[in-house]
Amino acid sequence: MGSRVRPDSLVWARFPAWLERHYPQGRATVLSESDIRAAIAAKKAKQESFGHWQYARLLHEWQGLPRGTLFADGVVVPGYPKIGRVQTLTGVLSQFHAPCWVEEKVDGYNVRLFRAGDALYAATRGGLVCPFTTDRLPDLIDPAVFSAHPELILCGEVTGPETPYIEGTSPLVPQGIGFFLFDLMRQGVEGFFPVEERRALARSFGLPAVPFHGRIDPKDLGRLREIVRRLDAQEREGVVLKEDSPRNFRAKYVTGSAELSDIASMTQRYLDVPPEYFTERVLRLALFLEDMEEPDREEWWHRQLGKAFLSALRERIAAARQGRCVGSFCCRFHAQENAVRLLDHLGQIRGHEGETRLVSLQDEGGAWVLRFEKLYRSTTGFLRNALGGSLRFD
Amino acid sequence: MGSRVRPDSLVWARFPAWLERHYPQGRATVLSESDIRAAIAAKKAKQESFGHWQYARLLHEWQGLPRGTLFADGVVVPGYPKIGRVQTLTGVLSQFHAPCWVEEKVDGYNVRLFRAGDALYAATRGGLVCPFTTDRLPDLIDPAVFSAHPELILCGEVTGPETPYIEGTSPLVPQGIGFFLFDLMRQGVEGFFPVEERRALARSFGLPAVPFHGRIDPKDLGRLREIVRRLDAQEREGVVLKEDSPRNFRAKYVTGSAELSDIASMTQRYLDVPPEYFTERVLRLALFLEDMEEPDREEWWHRQLGKAFLSALRERIAAARQGRCVGSFCCRFHAQENAVRLLDHLGQIRGHEGETRLVSLQDEGGAWVLRFEKLYRSTTGFLRNALGGSLRFD
Asked: Residues B365, B274: one domain?
């Protein structure tokens, strides 16, 4: 790690000497403070703060670094890159050229846990420090891992009914919240630890990890189909395949039940979501059904898809009749100030700009329990107009 | 009607003297040739031709005239205005203030049939003369009506399995094509004939008209619900309500089965249609089910909605595996040249710009039978990529 210069100033990305060891072919990028300032001026990056801690995050890809990369005094936390989707099992055949690890894809929100100075932080995909996840970080993992390896970045999924972001629920976390490690990075270094190295480190520090479904030959589609079919029956989201080869290629494949569950939960905010959110999932469901080769289940799927849309819409119509369409959330915090920061933070996240309304914040048995609602403004407005009998020219 | 000046030149809108009689309150608009030229220069109108006949059409509303208004030497055919939709039966209660006629809404394409000089033409909604409908006009109605009333504009719906535009089918026309009159206008005059006057004229000339479902008190929602429920059970599109009052207010209300049938037929070209086409129909279906108050049919509707998407997508996936996703059309013509004009015309219509491919054009027992395909390029491309195993970053 680079040494700190002035703790309260914006001195970015002290270049770690070992970066050059990892990228000997000239892929290393030396970033100075003025580079970051230029990125901010060019609207590629944005300056942020969490309490007194100041940092910048990339709003877009920049100089080969992914969106969501976070810079602070002595710290570079690379953004978590997008993982491509194979939409059919054929994609596994054509994209993978060596045996691959099958890891579960958990339905939640992506975080990177890291250390800066003496503090631990959790950043969301876009590179914002999340007040909720940061507050609850010691409940998610044993912080001892950062004492031993301060440069580590733990990449994983947070899910459960008590998060501020997730509208559906994962069967893996029936209550509260949970963390599932799926990758390790090092500060200032692009690229992930090899799967086995990551698993060994997770075991030795007792880090909770995504369920592991073995190592398969990508030509053995029958075995993969069985894994996916079982996950689908349990309404789990899908798999990430990681090729066991130097290129460490990876791709995701999602179950039909995850498409349905996305449709049902986002229908709660039907008109506050881009329409292609729904049409893309319907299409992926159709492709999934082709892959599963279960013609006798066809009618069952028809009913489930219709229900995903229509049950949720019926519930929303009833809500609009009563008043407003909202999403209700409940999260627990150690520190009251983090709950207040979260409410502020929600106003800044794309797709969450809608009105967030505090319902209550109170100490319940030693934890600060925050209850809040998100107003789904377009859904409410459209349904109230329709129910009120307004004319529509479309 | 105004007199012709130079038959082959663009002399527009000879102002008909009787327009002032119809709009004595100063609503009359006098249009000169230079006005129309200015509208063309301002991209509000576009110059078109059909054979040697030249005309202009409005691409946008202009000087109070609706989009689709057509101008030619001595002829002004007003565009057919949009009819607002009530999305719930409550809308009927709140929008209508006097008894109203209930007429069937037929699922097809909107045309205006009119006379110019000695010829009869059919214009589509956008104001383009349709080579197919114009060719077949004498099969749709008895042209005698234009000998008696040359200034009339017959507004109606054309539907059936042998049209160049409709992908679904209407149960009202199981084979060939059919025309259903729903309004009468006069050239150069905005506004419609009163319903009873139109019906009397249609009877005396034997003009086929949209099915008529009586005159109701808008407060009698029970009666309207019964009419709609019966139409829905027969997979018919819905109703247009026309208030029997001087303001001649009108609104449409569509059945759930029509939403399903739109979803199923447009899923044939799933990715060549804006996604909101589907999400809006799903939402309208949910509102329709609320109105019908039939909780015991809930599961049936779930299955139908899922099937509308998934059966059509399964068929498209199979088509993409074989090669391309296309729509196949067959139309009959009296004149070979009109078939050729249609193919040319299809390239100009918004939403039909995709590749149109002639399959065959041949004389079959005295009729020119045109078979053609529309290539659904985005649907084909997406599905072929997905089936080929390509990665997608979404």
From this structure: no
Q: Is residue A298 less than 8 Å (CB to CB) from chain B?
A: yes
Sheet containing B109-116: order of strands: B119-124, B109-116, B152-159, B178-186
The mean per-residue pLDDT over the stretch B369-379 comes to 95
Whether the per-residue pLDDT at A351 is higher than 70: the answer is no
pLDDT on residue B394? 85
Residues B333 and B316 in one domain: no
Q: Is A263 in the same domain as A338?
A: no
d(CA A53, CA B119): 80
Integer Cα distance of A131 and B180 in angstroms: 63
Q: Which 8-state DSSP code applies to residue A65?
A: B
pTM: 0.91
Best mutation site among B385, B390, B393 for testing chain A: the one with the most A CBs within 10 Å? B390
Which residues of chain A from 88 to 117 reach within 8 Å of chain B, CB to CB? 88, 90-95
In a domain, A392, yes or no: no
Among residues 314-343 of chain B, which lie with CB inside 8 Å of chain A?
314, 317
pLDDT digits (tens, 9 = 90+) for A272-297: 999 999 999 999 999 999 999 998 99
Residue range of the domain that includes B333: 326-375
CA distance B259 to B285: 6
- Give A-chain residues touching B91 at CB under 8 angstroms: 386, 389-391
Residues B171 and B145 in one domain: yes
The answer to the question of residue B312 being in a domain is: yes
Contact B287 A317 (CB under 8 A): yes
- Number of structural domains (chain B) is 3
Q: How confident is the model at residue B388, as a pLDDT?
A: 94
A82 touches chain B (CB under 8 A): yes
Q: Is A309 on the interface with B (CB under 8 A)?
A: yes
Cα B368 from Cα B361, distance rounded (Å)? 7
On whether both B266 and B128 belong to a single domain, the answer is: no
For all residues of chain A together, what is the average pLDDT? 90
**Least CA distance to A308: which residue of chain B?**
B302
B357: domain CATH number? 3.30.70.3360
Residues B271 and B285 in one domain: yes
Q: Two tokens at B181?
A: 């009159």
Residue A131 lies inside a defined structural domain of this protein: yes
Question: How many whole angstroms separate alpha carbon B336 and alpha carbon B347?
Answer: 18
